[in-house]
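Recall the central idea of this unit: under ordinary conditions, the amino acid sequence of a chain determines the structure it adopts. In this exercise we apply that idea directly, starting from the sequence alone.
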Amino acid sequence: MQPRFYALDALRGLAIALMILVNTPGSWSHVYPPLLHADWHGFNAADLVFPLFLFAVGAAMAFSMQGQTLNQSSLLKVAKRTVLLLSCGLLLHWFAVLSLTELRLPGVLQRIALCYGLAAVLILGLKQRALVGCCVGLLLLYWALLVSFASGTPYTLSGNAVQRLDLWLFGAAHLYQGYGIPFDPEGLLSTLAALSSTLIGYLVASHLRLLINIQRMRWLSCWGSGLVVAGLLWHIVWPLNKALWTGSYVLFSSGLILLLLALLVYLLDIKPQRWLQPLVVYGTNPLFIYMLSWLWVICASQYLVWQYDGAALSLYQAGFNGLAAVLSPRLASLLFALLHVALFWMLSQWLYKRKIFIRL
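Accordingly, the structure predicted from this sequence is:
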């Protein structure tokens, strides 16, 4: 039996911790810039969070799908989990609006579901060398579609091919509105590129299983640096853009993840550091913790509301106001998010100690 790969466990835990940190500031008006997504082109620290999650999904498949073949039983298992993930994502969005007419159809869990389902079928049906070609082919195909089917400049917010397909398929009312116009950063077409991010996670973890720790660190450092450089070079003609999930963004974010994983291999598998153990614990129930954090934020901000001094006040806002009374607004907002990270880690620890692992 192979020894447990703690660096991958910690990477998964880091993904969920960062996702909670980025998604639960005390106030969106008072956030340190690195914890905000880039407005459009560009890259902030927050833009690494979702690729990190998809990479972790792909990496987990290198172990959970080991030895499986393409047959009716395996396809049914994949289809069941994909539908469950899609359903959970839609349920979370419905809970936020309590309306089918305003229900946002694309979303984080929906993208994870599609990437998992499509990646699983490809992994079951193709050899690893073909999967490498598939990653490259998906990015080039997506690039060609963006250029061919845009209404105007292909990489602008309005009229890009991702938006046009989503508007035609889902309608404006069912898309994310945070950019001021209907445009969904988890759009259907850009899932092609996100699928590449997932497959990279699978391919990396599959190869790492064949190496020992020192070899893992060196291999990750080499390939991570190469992907970062390749992403920056591709940025010259295809800008880094998380919302469009461009090919340069896939390479750049994947390279950073490999470098981060190399560091974790050193700190957990080569020179074990006990202070990183909480990340391993955080990675044991990632989807459950993510969903619970979403439900908590919606409840605390939209449904646990009362009248105070002639105005509506939510539990979420009251918590931030209490911190902002003694700290600067940005620091209060950051501490508010960190307290959420700590709260859900304690829940993860409670589940971990009782060997409760909630899987879909």
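The first helix runs from residue 6 to 23.
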